[in-house]
Amino acid sequence: MNSTSKGTALITGASAGIGAIYADRLAKRGYDLILVARSGQRLDDLAARLSAETGRSVKTVVADLANTDDLRRVETLLREDATITLLVNNAGVGSVASILAADVDEMEQMIALNITALTRLTYAIVPAFVEKKAGTVINISSIVGIAAELLNGVYSASKAYVLAFGHKLQAELAGTGVRVQTVLPAATSTEFWDIAGHAAQKANPSTMSADDLVDAALVGLDQGELVSIPTLQDGAAWESWEAARRALTPNFANAKPAPRYKLA
Ligand SMILES: NC(=O)C1=CN([C@@H]2O[C@H](COP(=O)(O)OP(=O)(O)OC[C@H]3O[C@@H](n4cnc5c(N)ncnc54)[C@H](OP(=O)(O)O)[C@@H]3O)[C@@H](O)[C@H]2O)C=CC1
Ligand SMILES: N[C@@H](C=O)C(=O)O
Fold first, then answer.
1. What residue segments make up the domains of the chain, in order of their start?
2. What value of ipTM does the predicted structure carry?
3. Quick one: DSSP state of residue 33?
4. Which residue among 18, 113, 144 has the greatest number of ligand 2 atoms within 8 angstroms of its CB, and so is best to mutate?
């Protein structure tokens, strides 16, 4: 337990699963909390438990982040509350439906939550962090941002967005004192799977607990990792994938098509 306040952490999707574990761990690390989700009762129950256990201030905000008005309300809160030092962009939904079997309106809602809300909330807080030369954003992506064929394609693409957004933010914020960590969970035992349409995954032997996922990701944050993949046993495999990706960058721009297109 930490009795010195580290400022306030705003956590989206804090009423259940990974977000609720972040709330628990961050309160125990000394953060006051603002918990955001749609289920007010679940947020209130968690807030009551955490403030009793840790003595930290825990506020709740009921908001549907796929709804424009609710999202703007949380953006305003991020702009106006100068105590906020950490944003956890965790709220997200997934699906196992194939692209063509999925309802396009549901896919649009998924994009609104997984991409638009995460982007707008990041824009709402980062300028203040840059001004203060301090602050942390934790963005929850997924291993399907890389392993795109595993689940629903729109979901995978939304998580690839989070990874790419993080890469560029990390590059632009280097040296400012502001940190951005991108976390890529693999299958984690939460209600995500009930909503995604494959509840059995929660009990699969290869599925990680949300406790282990968050504890490892926070150690990754402490260790200065930009991208944390708690389930990946061989950390060097990620490093070499990243090195190969970055090595390609200077090779893309060229006025002439490559010889394999046989245009010359
Ligand atoms: N579980 C897994 O296997 C994996 C999960 N992830 C990612 O982890 C993150 C957390 O998921 P996880 O904890 O597993 O899932 P859960 O379903 O357990 O939790 C999702 C949280 O997001 C909230 N939420 C959902 N929709 C909205 C909305 N429209 N507005 C505001 N809050 C919303 C839910 O609360 P409420 O319903 O009260 O709004 C809940 O608190 C997601 O981004 C997910 O994509 C990544 C890889 C694997
Ligand atoms: N990352 C999980 C979902 O997003 C999975 O690997 O199944």
1. 8-261
2. 0.98
3. E
4. 144
